[in-house]
Amino acid sequence: MNDFLEQCRQAVGAPHVITEPADMAGYLTDWRRRFTGRAQAVIRPSTTEEVAAIVRLCNEFRVPVVPQGGNTGLVLGSVPDESGQAIVLSLNRMNRIRAVDTINNTMTVEAGAILQQVQVAAADAGRLFPLSLAAEGSCTIGGNLATNAGGTAVLRYGNTRELCLGLEVVTAQGEIWNGLRGLRKDNTGYDLRDLYIGAEGTLGVITAAVMKLFPQPKVRLTAFAAMQSADDALQLLSLAQGKCGATLTGFELMSDFCLALVAKHFPQLKSPFPDRYPQYVLLELSDSESEEHANAMLEAVITAALEQEVIQDAVVASSIAQSKGLWNLREHIPLAQAEEGKNIKHDISVPISRIGDYIRMTDQRLQESFPGCRMVTFGHLGDGNLHYNVSAPENAADEDFIKRQPEVNKVVHDSVHEFTGSISAEHGLGALKRDEICRYKSDIEMGLMRALKQALDPKNIMNPGKVI
């Protein structure tokens, strides 16, 4: 193994092969600090050719490779196991914007580029890169692609997969596939791009991508609405889509308990309403025409919703600061829940039309099985993705409740399956849900996935133990 590491040093330079435990520590622990793995080294290449050289060595010596971007994943997909055999292949030195094409509306970017860096580069070119996540100051484009991340603008722009036109990938054999084609139409066989997106580094290493850009909207408007139920929120969604079309770019649902947690742990963040309501929606319009046009559409939506008693109250942000304040309420929900104590997280999706039924049924089942448990339900209602998190009963010991996580998961995921949904909407499977998914996918589906893994990574060195 010393020969392996020495050859790695020759390939990328000795300073970029990290073996000291203290220096590796930040790469070995997951984002939520639930698990710490072990590795023989953290290796930090700076070019695609260096990535390929390292993967060839790993293939030769049968060393597992764990690709890592910003290490912001939530399902243990970007950290090694406890065997100490793997290397962590950190792509954070590969952070260059290679090209911006404002006519083709594309940007070619390396996998280690921070999402926020890409957003800023697009804005500097007079364009919009619409992917937006809570971790955008830390997560990387490669990680976003590897997990097919979603975020707050999926309703209008789609998941990361829909934002990508081409990839550069280092295969499990250390070969470089250059698929960096900025084409919107390319009907020439199997879509290898889509195969690697969402594969969580189990089939190869994404090193660069061609991403779509969009015109900057002339105006963005944010509103916050209060209502009695998730069913009312769905009616509001239908109204907003009917009156605003593609101008509706964000539609976020959150329960009263979510805002109560935010108020408790971040008292500087105030609810815009004097009274409390069971459910709230934050909606955003991005208009390319004018502020007057956007205001007219938003006013029409809110007026109709109030007249039809779909909502009980609403506020519209009158400034950028007020808009940020409303978004802060939404974005601080996970932080507030973390302050409240340990919790059991779920990243699920069901058909949009059935979200109200899903919440009612699953809430009831959880209360029957775990009396007093508290549901922290929020998420991207416009695309059917809920963060359906479960906190321990008030005054109960967190550790005792967390021990029952498999039971809680079974209730939540069985209910998802009944509603023909998915147990992972945007976070991926990683190691956390690798075995769980086998309960819900058919033998045929799992067999096809294993066949692809065997074909592309026959030595099983690419992020083993993740996804399948």
From TrEMBL:
The molecular function terms of the Gene Ontology recorded here are:
catalytic activity; FAD binding
Ranges of residues in domain FAD-binding PCMH-type: 35-216
Q: Which example biological process does GO assign this protein?
A: respiratory electron transport chain
Q: Which UniProt keywords apply?
A: FAD, Flavoprotein
Q: Please, which domain of life does this record's source organism belong to? A: Bacteria
Entries under SUPFAM superfamilies matching the protein: FAD-binding/transporter-associated domain-like, FAD-linked oxidases, C-terminal domain
Co-factor requirement: FAD
Q: Which family does it belong to?
A: Belongs to the FAD-binding oxidoreductase/transferase type 4 family.
Protein name in the entry: D-lactate dehydrogenase (Cytochrome)
The record lists the organism as Noviherbaspirillum humi
